[in-house]
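Long-time lurker, first post. I've been practising inverse folding by hand and with some scripts of my own, and I keep getting stuck on stretches where the structure tokens seem ambiguous. Below is the full token string for one chain I'm working on. Before anyone asks, I'm not after the true native sequence, just a reasonable design that respects the backbone. If someone could post their per-position residues I'd love to compare against what I wrote down in my notebook.
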């Protein structure tokens, strides 16, 4: 049911870990896969080199570590042989006299594909080139692993058999930091979900920088981005790893974990792939990029097992929960509108504006925008012609509010009652004014518009009106 609607539940697990203790790590990974399965997660990602640990250093040159890694992978394959969950694990893998830092994608006991890391860091506190080769050094695009012939490379797209809009790609840690991350091309080729296996150490300010990277990449590629990094148990030196995990969708953070946890932790939510696909169709940039890039499509089978959605949608999506942020946005809205109006007044060399004020929120906002534009330009507010036009449904409260508002800001107030003119109009078209339907309401709106336009023509002024979007935004604030 939920899969048909485009939802797919994804998760990120930071497992409890012992560096180079492959057997311990394997058991913990299996335990966490079971936890993910119990939470109906359809695709789950683990950190970079989670089977061995990222900080094994020169132990990566020891055959026994690599052999134990393959044994652990085999054990995980056996455990998942009857499971539908798709798992993405990090492990070192030797091929053609080279060692690669890879992401292994597996499901139901089968290795679906292997993605090697492209950008191998070798600066600051990182020495990865001492052990690992880049994907640019790959010789074969298919390798044999545990008696399976497996696609190998960064050109892999994993697509659902039934719904091709459910498509994911993979990059590893430093790949995201690069000028041109692999996920750029993966997104252009159709991947609307990106998984990142990472081992990012912690220093002051890096948490915010890392989060900004994920947010921007998710927004730039219009994708769901699942980032999973190694935890506090990882370190064997003076480096500290915080285990930051987060899930973004088109630049919006859906969920993040608690960092610095010695125990395993899991986060998960649903990605709305139909929404992402729709956003991409509307984004003309996706149509103008070159997409004649060679890639391989790996067909997968995502089971539709969700019973309910964990994801929560905000009832006021345009209103931040943080009051300070809300105030900043409201100030920005006023600035955008008032400076836009000020520019129009400068361009037309018009000093007078005409506005209909009802005493409601929408016309009040428009009126305040005008007063700020006049303040910017140094124009007297007496040049604002505020017209209140009471009719059949006008209440005393809103009428009085409109009058007080105009007087407070020193605007020129006019009151024009539209009741008689509307009644005459109803007689002209043989309409029963007791039938309070669409004609009844629209007649008043059209009469008010005619008055505003005629007064503007007579005063050589501009009519400043409101619109559906401003009304909607104002209502959302008060839901």
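-- Answer (accepted) --
I ran through it position by position. Result:
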């Amino acid at each position: 049911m939920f899969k048909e609607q485009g939802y797919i539940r994804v998760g990120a697990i930071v497992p409890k870990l012992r560096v180079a203790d492959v057997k311990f790590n394997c058991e913990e990974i299996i335990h966490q896969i079971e936890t993910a399965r119990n939470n109906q997660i359809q695709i789950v990602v683990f950190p970079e080199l989670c089977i061995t640990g990222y900080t094994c250093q020169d132990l990566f040159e020891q055959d026994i570590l690599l052999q134990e890694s393959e044994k652990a992978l085999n054990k995980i394959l056996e455990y998942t042989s009857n499971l539908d969950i798709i798992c993405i694990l990090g492990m070192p893998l030797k091929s053609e006299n080279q060692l690669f830092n890879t992401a292994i994608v597996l499901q139901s006991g089968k290795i679906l594909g292997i993605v090697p890391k492209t950008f191998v860091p070798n600066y600051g506190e990182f020495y990865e080139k001492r052990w690992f080769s880049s994907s640019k050094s790959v010789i074969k695009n298919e390798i044999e692993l545990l008696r399976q012939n497996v696609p190998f490379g960064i050109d892999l797209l994993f697509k659902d058999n039934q719904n091709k809009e459910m498509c994911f790609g993979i990059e590893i840690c430093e790949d995201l930091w690069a000028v041109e991350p692999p996920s750029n091309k993966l997104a252009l080729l159709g991947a609307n979900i990106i998984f990142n296996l990472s081992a990012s150490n912690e220093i002051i300010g890096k948490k915010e920088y890392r989060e900004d990277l994920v947010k921007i990449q998710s927004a730039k590629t219009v994708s769901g981005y699942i980032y999973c990094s190694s935890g506090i148990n990882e370190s064997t030196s003076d480096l500290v790893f915080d285990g930051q995990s987060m899930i973004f969708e088109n630049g919006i953070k859906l969920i993040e974990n608690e960092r610095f946890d010695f125990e395993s932790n899991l986060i998960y939510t649903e990605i709305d792939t139909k929404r992402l696909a729709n956003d991409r169709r509307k984004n003309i940039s996706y149509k103008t990029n070159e997409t004649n890039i060679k890639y391989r499509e790996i067909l997968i089978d995502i089971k539709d097992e969700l019973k309910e959605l964990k994801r929560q949608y905000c009832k006021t999506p345009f209103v931040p929960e943080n009051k300070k942020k809300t105030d900043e946005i409201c100030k920005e809205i006023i600035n955008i509108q008032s400076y836009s109006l000020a520019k129009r007044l400068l361009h037309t060399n018009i000093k007078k504006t005409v506005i209909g004020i009802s005493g409601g929120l929408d016309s009040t906002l428009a009126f305040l925008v005008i007063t700020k534009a006049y303040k910017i330009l140094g124009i007297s507010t007496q040049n604002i012609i505020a017209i209140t036009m009471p009719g059949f449904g006008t209440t005393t409260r809103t009428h009085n509010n409109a009058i007080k508002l105009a007087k407070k800001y020193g605007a020129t107030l006019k009151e024009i009652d539209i009741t008689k003119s509307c009644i005459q109009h109803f007689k002209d078209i043989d309409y029963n004014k007791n039938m309070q339907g669409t004609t009844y309401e629209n007649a008043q709106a059209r009469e008010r518009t005619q008055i505003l336009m005629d007064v503007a023509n007579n005063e050589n002024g501009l009519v400043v009106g409101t619109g559906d979007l401003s009304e909607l935004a104002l209502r959302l604030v008060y839901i």
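A couple of notes from the structure itself: Residues 475-479 have pLDDT under 50 and may be disordered. The CA atoms of residues 174 and 329 lie 34 Å apart. Happy to go over any region you disagree with.
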